[in-house]
Fold each of these.
Amino acid sequence: MCMYKSDFQPIMKRYALALKIILLMAGVMFIVRSFVLPYSIEQIASLLLGILLMIIYIYLLMIIPSAIELDNEGITIKRVLGKKSIPYSVIKEVFAYNGVQEDVRYFGSNGFLGYIGIMGSTPYGKYYSYVKNPQQQVFVLTQNKNYLLSCENRDIFIKELSNKLSK
């Protein structure tokens, strides 16, 4: 079992915690503000904006990867809340990729705390992106869905995964 840490690029690593705290505080402040205001359209707007910011925060916590593990059954993307598994039996190909910045974003974050969500590219179609560091991208083509991951030591990860696929 091999564990590969999924971390932000160095410049973003410094600001990731601060951005998460700011997003959380903004959501809480809008919700609190909605109870302080006299009943009006501003109160409703403030409450809805606060709830929206909290939903975005929880969504980011649910899908931002913390590590990628190669276990006996497949790739496991470990997240703060839950995990995502990709069995070896469905993986067709794995390779280094460097194009997430140029790809189309259908739903998700296009650089804010990573490239997370549903993206699309011309050669590979729609894929699910779990990229925190765009300099360490790994594309995983499967029979059903495609995934773009990032982890430290991308080349070692690809070599280990390729060895497991060839067995």
Amino acid sequence: MFKIAEQTKGKMVPEKTLFSEGQTSKVAITGLRGVGKTQIALELTYRTREKYPQCSIIWIPATNVESLQQAYLEAGRQLGISGLEEEQADVKKLVQRHLSQQSAGRWLLLFDNTDDINMWINNAGNENKPPSLIDYLPRSSQGCLIFTTRNRKIAVKLAQQNVMEVPEMDKDIATQLRCHRRRKASWYEKWAQNSTFG
């Protein structure tokens, strides 16, 4: 079973915590550039798909507003949301509404590279800036939000206590990470012993 090291007790948190009963689950994966945050997120999506074949998995690159907007538009199309092509359509709001409905089913929404705090913090009262992205996050007991970021402040803001710190990987674990899908290696259990969650 996929496990994440829990910082405070030295225990492992099972992957079933990705879908909590009664609320939207949130997890942030944080660490330096190149330590494997995106690869860990990719592994989470593979395992989620294996466990929940009907789960909608949506990958949103959050490196800048343009890539994020394009990814939201494509996600909306894939989800079959109407009204996306209207001139004044707020695509992020339409996707949020859709995923917040119980009829949307189980979903995992992954924001990769959420490093720009100005995209995520509250811009209330500033007419020149669009609403912050945190206001567009869907809420559903069938949903899970995962964020990858180098910015711990954003990680805590978005996922509260569910922040996974990724240390630099040694060469052996990095090699296993690159090859794990082909060999079905259990690289993660070895790596998780050196990671912290909390």
